[in-house]
Design goal:
5 helices, 6% strand, 103 residues, two-stranded parallel sheet, mainly alpha, single chain, elongated
């Protein structure tokens, strides 16, 4: 995600949800709670090489711990039981109206 203009993209959130760090442009704004989990880089050859070397040299145990931390934080930030219940109620109402016939 090294584009020059990007909002908080779904691909960054999707990667975050499974504990995968994203490699992003340093000049693009991301919420503070998310920044520490991103690998941010200037978009120049030298800086990209440095960032890639940083990624390659990450300690595997720290990376696994970070992965678990990211997954837990994502669930906390984006998995709201109220939203799930509202959606479930909505589906049940639709099912009652339209029944279970396959068309």
């Amino acid at each position: 995600m090294l584009s020059k203009s990007e909002i908080l993209s779904l691909s960054v959130l999707e990667a975050f949800s499974v504990g995968t760090q994203s490699f992003v442009n340093k000049r693009i704004f991301f919420p503070r709670w998310l920044q520490k989990y991103l690998i941010r880089s200037e978009v120049s050859n030298l800086n990209l090489v440095r960032s890639i070397r940083l990624i390659m040299s990450q300690d595997i145990i720290k990376k696994k711990n970070l992965k678990n931390e990211m997954k837990i934080l994502f669930k906390k930030k984006y998995t709201l039981s109220d939203e799930k219940n509202i959606y479930k109620d909505f589906l049940q109402k639709i099912f009652k109206i339209h029944g279970s016939t396959n068309r």
